[in-house]
Amino acid sequence: MIEGALWRRWVFYNIPLILFVFVLLFPFYWMIITTFRPDGELYRPWNAVNYMPFWTNNPTIEHILYLFEETNFMRWMLNTMMIAFVSTIISLFCGVLAGYALARLNFPYAGGLGTAIFVTYLVPQTLLFIPLAEIIRNFQLGDTPWSLILTYPTFLIPFCTWLMMGYFKAIPKELEECARIDGASRWKAMLYIVIPVAVPGILSSGIIAFTLSWNEFIYALVFLSSPDQKTVPVGVTSELIRGDVFFWGPLMAGALLGSIPVAIVYSFFVEHYVSGLTGSVKG
């Protein structure tokens, strides 16, 4: 009986989990190995003597140095950080207010409006960038960070609104009603009672919105053209892929360094704030 349970655990849990973790982490491992592998090993034929595709005995930082010395990578990082941060703040502000209104205020067609807002998030960006490009051109915002700061909320606000609407619905109405009975206005009840309880949801929405902004490619590719104005996803791919020549070392170095800020945001906020605040709310 025990052996059968162990066998089922390995077949239906352990082995699928190991395969999932391997498939999930292997691209990052390959990215790290390629970043520190010298060109002589990168372009060595697979049937060459002492060829090791998954390891290197001669690690180098020449690709990272090339990235900082021969490209505008630091400028791309600053552009991406600023655009992602500002667009996330705008989207969170609008999403929190809209989510609260749809979850708490009783007005006609509130449910249908919430569904319509979420449906707008599902509209592909490949359909939206053409009319948005016309708007950006009319306001003369092309090739500036504002072209992305003002267009990213078009898909971030619906997502944040839908996420916060569900989180506000999970907060007991009695908390807000007690504050209203004690004389607080709806605005004060929301600001001092509901919003502090919803901080884990707000942080979660902000982290996901920041990640979506950081990784966005289509709008950045269409609206930005100057090398100094590009973001990391567009700058790395456009400057390090020239025709049919792929600079694999700097490409992987750019991808590795470009993923570090998002990893820091996830690990820091989720571990120290979201999980802790959620635990304190449950307690």
TrEMBL record:
Organism the protein comes from: Reyranella aquatilis
Domain ABC transmembrane type-1: 77-269
UniProt membrane topology term: Multi-pass membrane protein
Protein family per UniProt: Belongs to the binding-protein-dependent transport system permease family.
CDD domains on file: TM_PBP2 (cd06261)
Protein name, per record: Carbohydrate ABC transporter permease
Transmembrane segments: 12-33, 76-102, 109-130, 150-168, 189-214, 245-269
Compartment list: Cell membrane
Keywords recorded for this protein, A-Z: Cell membrane, Membrane, Transmembrane, Transmembrane helix, Transport
Taxonomic path: Bacteria, Pseudomonadati, Pseudomonadota, Alphaproteobacteria, Hyphomicrobiales
Chief location bin: membrane
